[in-house]
Amino acid sequence: MSRQLDGNLGSVVLLASLAAIGQFSSNIYTPSLPFIAAEFAVSPGAAQFTYTVFLATLGVGQLLVGPLADAVGRRPIALWGLAVFLLGTVLAAAAPSLGLLNGARVIQAAGAAAALVASRAATRDAFDGPELVKVFAAITIAFALVPALTPLLGGVVEWLAGWRAVFGLPLIVGLLVTAHTLSRLPETLPQRKALSIQGAAQAYVAVFKAPSF
Questions:
Q1: What is the DSSP letter of 119?
Q2: What are the phi and psi torsion angles at 8 (to 5°)?
Q3: How far is CA 170 from CA 72, 147, 174, in A?
């Protein structure tokens, strides 16, 4: 059973792309870390922090965006998230210092977190039973493939055009996913919920206390 979204290839690719765009962006530039350290004259550890701060923001961002997705809907969260992601990507490519690169990576990851939340929530809204399992399996496959393939791709681009050009790939992918989202992603949330910080905090506490979690 589905609401507005169907289980065909186009919908699955859209949901998987929204979910995996953060993985794509976090891994594609790892081969460039030594060159970033050299350009900004910092230690390898300082350069690697641009990767760490991305992952931290991606994780924490999902906790913050989740309640917003229940309050305003999946489609607005996806589109705003992609807009923030694209902004962060452009800023990262043009960053004149390591500090500003870290800031750009935070912005980029915050947008990716929103896209991931929207994808997972829309999938859960629209599908159930065997169809839900099938779509989640496809998204999981995308999560497995992206970290394996993107560093090689990023390394080739860095070798050809330098580390700043590597951010052009997430920019292109982000633009394509945005266009696909605008044309194909409906609002799947059946009923909006009032935004409650206290309610969200209580729900997270209950989850963290659950033995199965």
A1: H
A2: -75, 175
A3: 26, 14, 6
Angstrom distance (rounded) from CA 67 to CA 9: 29
For residues 11, 75, 117, 92, the Cα torsion angle rounded to the nearest 10 degrees is 100
Taking alpha carbons only, the member of 65, 71, 75, 90 closest to residue 18 is 75
Question: Which pair of structure tokens corresponds to residue 164?
Answer: 């700043």
Q: Which of 22, 9, 34, 10 is closest to 150 using CA atoms?
A: 22
**Strand, coil or helix: 201:** helix
pTM of full prediction above 0.85: yes
Say if residue 40 is exposed, middle or buried (CB neighbours under 10 Å; 0-12, 13-18, 19+): middle
Closest CA relative to residue 85, chosen from 156, 172, 189, 158: 172
Q: Where in 69-114 does DSSP place strands (E)?
A: none
3-state secondary structure of 97: coil
Average pLDDT across each block of 10 residues of the chain; the chain has 213 residues. List them in order.
61 90 90 94 94 95 90 94 98 96 97 95 88 85 82 90 93 96 89 67 76 80
Report which of 9, 23, 117 is spatially closest to residue 72, judged by C-alpha positions.
117
Cβ neighbours of residue 115 under 8 Å, at least 6 residues apart? 18, 19, 21, 22, 78, 81, 82, 85, 177
- Cα 32 from chain centroid (whole Å): 20
Q: How deeply is 189 buried, as exposed, middle or buried, from its count of CB atoms within 10 A (0-12, 13-18, 19+)?
A: buried
Selection from 78, 105, 85 nearest residue 163 by Cα: 105
